Amino acid sequence: MTQNPAVSTIYDTVRDDFTAVNACILQQLQSDVPLVEKIGHYIIEAGGKRLRPLLVLLAARACGYTGERHVELATIIEFLHTATLLHDDVVDSSDLRRGRSTANAKWGNAPSILVGDFLYSRAFQCMVNIGDMQVMNVLADATNVIAEGEVMQLMNVRDASISEEKYMDVIRCKTAMLFEASSHTAAILAGADEKTEKALQDYGNHLGMAFQLVDDLLDYNGDSAEMGKNVGDDLAEGKPTLPLIYAMREGSAEQGALIRKAIQKGGLDQLDEILTIVRSSGALEYTEQKAREQADKAINALAHLPTSPQRGAMEELARFAVARTQ
What whole-number distance in Å separates Cα of residue 256 and Cα of residue 246? Predict the structure, then answer.
């Protein structure tokens, strides 16, 4: 869990619930296969903000939920997210995440993929235990969309012709969908009315979009030590994210040609030149503007909910998604 004092009050509103989620995660990681537990604990305990399970807890309490199933639902969401991280690091050949070696760098690709599969299947076991068919339906659909989003992103690697609209579709599928599912299923679990359920679904979608856009921005303007990964990783992998798409569109012909060549080739041979172009073209400011627009939409979606500490924390969470530096 993050120790960032700027967001500690957000966690404080569901502190006991969050402690229960951590205990549930450790319980559900138990396996008769030692390597499964070893890799599972390694990736789960790597740190991170656990925003998605936090979102489940906040949304459920904001709807007036008084039961305990939201703890298991938050654990499900964390397992789904962690499974995607394990698989993504293999696909991207990543060796650093959150400042530590990735699981595939330590144990190899095959164990990482298989433990990711274990986490997926354990998540669905927990869904069955919750026993709400509507929750299962939303999460089943979400995992399918996320998989499609990852394939879409893979198809876009080293393709410098990707439009902003198409890129937004990709991040909506691969990132925003799990945020959306987190708040949406929490509302369902709490028995919220249709209008509240839709409001929380929209909130999660816009929050996830804002979060991913800031990730894109930090890849060209962040600090490697704070982020726990290397600046320019997206460029090295040939991923055309929004800062590059904007810089190609708004920069000079020569600048656009240089960025297109760098995307198509991959690697970091021209990182310094690309960073200069991205930072001077207004691409980072444009990306931040788009992230703020999404955060504002997330906050506006909460207007239907009654005033509560949890609703206030969700509003602050949207602001934090844009203001964060890691």
Answer: 10
